Amino acid sequence: MKDGTGRKPLLHVEHLEICRIGTGTAVRTETGAKAGAGTRIGAATGEGAGRKPGANGKIMRISGNQPLLRDVSFTVYPGEIVALTGPSGCGKSLTAHAIVGMLEPGIGITRGHIHYNGEDIVPFDERRWQRLRREDIALLIQQSLSGLNPIRTVRTQLTDTLRLHGRRWMPPDQKGRADAAPSLAVLQQAAPQGVLPQVRQVLSWIARMAGGRVTQAQEAYLCSLLRKVGFADPEHVLSSYPFELSGGMCQRVLLAVMLGSGPRLFIADEPTTALDVINRDKVLALFQQLREDLDLTILLISHDRQGVSRVADRVLEMSPEGRMRE
Questions:
Q1: Per-residue pLDDT tens over the stretch 112-145
Q2: Would you say residue 210 has pLDDT above 80?
Q3: Same domain, 9 and 78
Q4: 158 in any annotated domain
């Protein structure tokens, strides 16, 4: 599928349906008519009715409930910022979680396709989903401010992400020095009096006991990540704990955590919900800048249609029935 200019989509969701499911016993399956369609269930009224093969090879029996999401279709092209809007409960977040293979247990895709970079990713097993999330697609979940560990510094949490994702955006000359001696360029602060400094001292001691040290190469890369998300003093932020930062600052730290994996597609689910108006506008403007700086494709999910329309190339509106309107 291509648009009028010949561009191929990075993400194409086609007739997506999501239902509550359970595990049953298959009676009959048949191969889909289309090449690459995978295993399909027999006639809707036949002995195999109501069952669907799951990603792990088991057969999923669809419950009698109505679909949670029905017939959702849309396309996102490389380099776009596309906003997905609609009333609360229409399935925006459910769609985002389906794209990254993170639907809750008991909920599954029962119809349709999700094509990423030309490949249908719905049949992926968990190992392939994990690789996709690690290398290509990042999801900033709703109410993500609780995702930061309050008793670990920003430096430690960002470093964990670098180690998990292999520091894909670290310059080659820095990758080779990953095992260098610990950095001595950490911001030194005078120890003021009071309860908070004592808390910091205890937490720092715990971090040292856990071996949470950072190399010079990692320190430089962490600072570059934080500068990309708008921090003028990244060294101070790296040394801070989440409870010492404002909501807007924590949101930008989370953006840095997500960007540390070097994704091609970035999905932000209600990224401004917990922010005041000033920080909301800053975060939305930041998405535009990150799109340019990192060649990102962004799917921005929000109920604030007016706000996201200022930064999005296209705005898609989802109805409670799952219908899409651009």
A1: 999 999 999 999 999 999 999 988 999 988 766 6
A2: no
A3: yes
A4: yes
Alpha-carbon distance of 216 to 177, in angstroms, equals 8
Residues in CB range of 275: below 8 A, 6 or more apart: 247, 248, 251, 283
CA 260 to mean position of chain CA atoms = 12
Q: Which residues pair with 19 in a beta bridge?
A: 108
A 10 A CB-CB count for 290 gives: 19
Whether pLDDT at 152 is above 50? yes
d(CA 108, CA 268): 21
Residues 257 and 150 in one domain: yes
Cα gap 203→230, rounded to integer Å: 26
* Residue 244 located in a structural domain: yes
pLDDT of residue 205: 45
List of E strands, the chain = 11-24, 29-31, 39-41, 51-53, 59-62, 69-76, 81-85, 107-116, 119-120, 137-140, 265-269, 297-301, 314-318, 324-325
Identity at 305, one-letter amino acid code: R
Angle at CA 151, nearest 5°, toward 236 and 250? 50
Looking at the domain assignment, is residue 46 inside a domain? no
pLDDT level of residue 9 (50, 70, 90 thresholds): very high
Contact criterion met (CB below 8 Å) for 255 and 263:
no
| Number of domains into which the chain is organized | 2
Number of CB atoms found within 10 A of residue 52's CB: 22
Cα-to-chain-centroid distance, residue 12: 17
- Residue 254's domain comprises 142-183+194-262
Residue 243 shares a structural domain with residue 298:
no
Q: What is the DSSP letter of 182?
A: B
* Rounded Cα distance, 168 and 300, in Å: 23
Among candidates 232, 289, 243, which has minimal Cα distance to 266? 289
Question: What pLDDT does 165 receive?
Answer: 63
State pLDDT tens for residues 269-301.
988 877 788 888 888 898 999 899 889 999 999
Q: In this structure, are 177 and 298 located in the same domain? A: no
Do residues 302 and 85 make contact, with C-beta atoms less than 8 angstroms apart? yes
Higher-confidence position of 269 and 175: 269
